[in-house]
Amino acid sequence: MPGPRFTDIRRFDSIDSTNRYLLDEARGGAPEGVVAVADHQSAGRGRLGRSWEAPPGTNLLLSVLLRPDLPAGHRHLASAAVALAGSDAVEAVTGLRLGIKWPNDLIGPDGRKVAGVLAEADVADPSARGGRPSAPIVVGIGMNVNWPAADSDLPPDLVGSATSLHRLVGRTVDRSRVLEALLGALEPRAADLGSESGRARQSADFRARCTTIGTSVRVELADDRFEGRATDLTAEGHLVVVVGDRTRTVVSGDVVHVRPGDRPSPPAV
Ligand code: BT5
After folding, report:
1. Nearest residue CA, atom 25 of ligand 1?
2. Letter string b/e over residues 21-59, b meaning 16 or more CB atoms within 10 A of that residue's CB
3. CATH architecture of structural domain 216-257
4. Across residues 90-110, what is the average pLDDT?
5. What residues does ligand 1 touch, defined as CB less than 6 Å away?
6. Which fold has domain 4-209?
């Protein structure tokens, strides 16, 4: 029986990006379970070349190195496991139940984003290309714990779309407790990625917490955009969208929850 995975925790006062750091470590052969946590990132990464903002000393900025025995096509479940562990941790520490907006954002009851997840694999790694077991995946999560405390803290482009645990619960939240709870919750979820029954459990949990299902969505792909109704997730964690009389499966992209009566839709976050 393997021991706990997430015991090698590397802490940084400041770093460019915890994901970049662990991708380099993975290239050097670092094992599954290495964790990088930063007080500040000077070049925090979002998906699709976007950036992730957080003032020093306020929020949780964390990446984990996974080497899951995942069949090709199931890699989304690795980032889902981290999003689920993030929502477990928030509930354990604050009592708040956050939803997961597909693909991996944790959102509050007002639909504003509390956390985002970025999974990156090393495309230069031949094992990653083949999707072979134990190919490294670095999954980072940025969680707004104590920042923003108010809309006035935010840059204009995030006003109305970002919130924090502090705002949602009305008090300062201890980042180290959230970190500890997240790594504890991730342990069984990461183990689950290596078996068919475990993956089925993770995808069922993802489906249960995914607030995108049942909503009208606008899907924005690199070269296409369309609107439809999100009806389900596949076993791999991809989004099923009914568009007229067609059913489309979205593997990656951005989704905007389109609420009746507020078109044009709010900006994607
Ligand atoms: C994400 O991207 O949501 C993934 C964020 C992952 C950040 C973590 S922090 C630790 C690890 N190391 C890294 O370098 N990254 C990971 P995406 O869905 O593309 O969202 C990015 C967009 O969200 C930006 O373009 C902004 O519009 C918005 N944004 C930036 N900072 C935000 C914040 N703190 N809260 C809410 N929205 C934010």
Report:
1. 50
2. bbbebbeeebebbbbbbbbbbeebbebeeeebbbeeebb
3. Roll (2.30)
4. 97
5. 17-19, 41, 44-48, 50, 52-54, 61-63, 105, 113, 116-118, 140-142, 144, 157-158, 162, 269
6. BirA Bifunctional Protein; domain 2 (3.30.930)
